[in-house]
């Protein structure tokens, strides 16, 4: 079902406006960041990028690289209770050297179906 077929689609009518390119909204974003953002902002969920694909997107493997977990601020232990979804599933050892925590994206690509080739 498309958006126009939703029962309340025509209840509010807004004037048609030309789209503003994402490049204009976030001018400092890299082409890889813009591409990933566009893949997230897809109305139909079946066409939207999956979390697995997103984590393998070139955005995460181009400069500037994401910060190592040891460089991130550590929240206060009791600042916020868990959201009721149970205990945290993953624990991280902040003493692990950066070299030991990196993953080569080429070794993961075979796990994602339909992963586009960004390097051609």
From TrEMBL:
Keywords on record: Kinase, Transferase
Keyword Transferase: yes
Molecular function per GO: kinase activity
Protein name as annotated: Cyclin-dependent kinase 20
Annotated organism of origin: Stylophora pistillata
Gene coding for it: cdk20
Domain of life: Eukaryota
Matches recorded under InterPro entries: Kinase-like_dom_sf
